Give the backbone structure.
Amino acid sequence: MSKTSTESACQPFGRGSCTSPQRGVETDSLWRWRYAAHLGFPGPDTPYFQSSAGPDPVEQIKRAAKIGFVAQADRHFMMRPPEEQIRIGRALAEHGLQLSSFVDHPREPLGPWNRIDNESKHTLRRRLNASFAAARHVRCSFVTIVSAIDPSLLVEDQVAALVHNLGWAATMAEEAGVRLCLEPVSRERVEGALITNVDVGSQVVARVNSPSCRLSFDTLHVALESGDVAAAYRRVALQVGLIQIAERDRLEPGSGTIDFAALSACIQESGYPGIIELEHCHSVPGRRGEALSLKRLAAFDRIEFGSTQSARSSP
């Protein structure tokens, strides 16, 4: 990518400051941003470092800490038994990590956020109370929200209901010391979702107008729905609370066609202070695949504003 096109993609921002770099004990990388691996994706039994650290969540946490990551994500956290949740929380605290996010109800992730009837509100409150109780074990940053759609109702009415429900839910989240993260998802990957476009998601978050309700920016879903990931990030950056990176096929950044060089420059320019979750699988199996993903992550992390280097240049 040329310097001109990268600068153009980021013009709305002044130069942002990054958080303190994190150095990994087992790598030579001094990470510019705050990264989170995962304890299981796409399923709960396929953690990020499965080949090098095995299936035990505690060993995954140890490995992530040695790499220099600051968090773990676990979309399936609410499916784990309470004793395992507590064990994970203790390991995270011991190694100075936190849980960056989990889905509020992974068995039925599409919640009735698009309705205002009493039954739906009761369901949402029950789910949130369970999520907030679990979040206390692990210093969780975000509970991820995905709303269902009802084809029999007007979309604008459902979006208005979503805004209303997120408003009172954000108050609950603030009292619990947690934040909600609305995730727009492509219907190519998740059927029945109400919010598929990241721009619409940003508008919803802006209408809620609460620091306890933010936007999740997943590069896979953004690429499928909006095409130009960097341009989309530029438009919604003020509402973003969580970034998740993956190629369109859910493999590691740099293995596909998304322009992560442009996105890296835009993240740099926005001064994004949050966590970047590695919500992807590895294109190569085994330890070699894990090492390749980390090498490509280091390439993404090193890209400076205006650089012509591309994350895809890494082998």
